[in-house]
Amino acid sequence: MLFQVTALYALPLAILFLVLWFRVTTTRSNLKVSIGDAGDTGLHEKIRQHGNFVEWAPIVLILMIIAEGNKADAIWLHVSGALLLIGRLIHPFGLTAANPAHPLRIIGNTSSLLATLTVMVCVVVTSFGL
């Protein structure tokens, strides 16, 4: 099977994407808000939790596919995938208006950044032999 390692992380990330989307959609429906957040802090937080996920997960998964297609060492793909999954799982719990420096937010973003850097190195090494 092609892209077996990437698939291992893409599936739970897709489930998390749907959970975050559902939270936004149900809150919008309950508040009768179609566009924006209508000044509701809770809705705004949920929108940003979902948005932040969308800003990080796709690019890392795309880079993982490139690296895996280039025969990157699976351990580095697992490191990148695990960091991304852990980071994206805990980040929404720390992304709150009440505490912008919440430890889970910092850990979530740091994990995602490390996942991105790890897989970027894999792509450079496997694509250009550096």
UniProtKB/TrEMBL annotation:
SUPFAM superfamilies reported for this sequence: MAPEG domain-like
InterPro entries: MAPEG-like_dom_sf, Membr-assoc_MAPEG
Keyword Disulfide bond: no
Keyword check for Isomerase: no
Transmembrane portions of the chain: 6-24, 75-94, 106-128
One Pfam family named in its UniProt record: MAPEG
PANTHER family: GLUTATHIONE S-TRANSFERASE-RELATED, PTHR35814
Protein name: Glutathione S-transferase
